[in-house]
Design goal:
Structural class: mainly beta
Shape: globular
Largest sheet: 6 strands, parallel
Helix content: under 10%
Number of helices: 0
Strand order of the largest sheet: 1-4-7-10-13-16
Distance between the termini: 29 Å
Radius of gyration: 14 Å
Order of helices and strands: EEEEEEEEEEEEEEEE
Number of strands: 16
Amino acid sequence: VTYAGQFPCHHIRIFNNKTGNTYHGRGICLIGEDLECYNNTTDTTDGAGIIITSEKSNNTGNPRRVTVRNNVVYRSGQDTVKNQAGIHIGGYGSTTNTVTDTFVYDNRIEYPKSDAIRIDEGSDRTTLRGNTAIGLPTGKKLIDQSGGTNVVIQ
């Protein structure tokens, strides 16, 4: 995690991991620059399975150039009060908290409590391709674009 005012974490690869039963939290949180997250599995998370975020309340930096590909997210968003998607993208809390140049490819989200993928406020230049979902709850979406600008869905 990169905190505001610090040199950002950068050029990090997170791959071939399994996380599970993360009560009160997320599976994998990506905050930095030039990050790759691939071939991971998250299972049973209260929040998002994978989140790319900038949060004013935690004084975090702004993620840039993040790639999330070939991951499997099972049973994300178990805490419906948090209401986070399987893969959640967004900057929260002010107009200066932004997530830019995010690529989300070929991920599989299974049995989330909320949407499979959500693009929220504070995200810019997001590209999605080849993502799938199984077992979406009634009324939930593969892709919920609640916010964000310059979104490309291929």
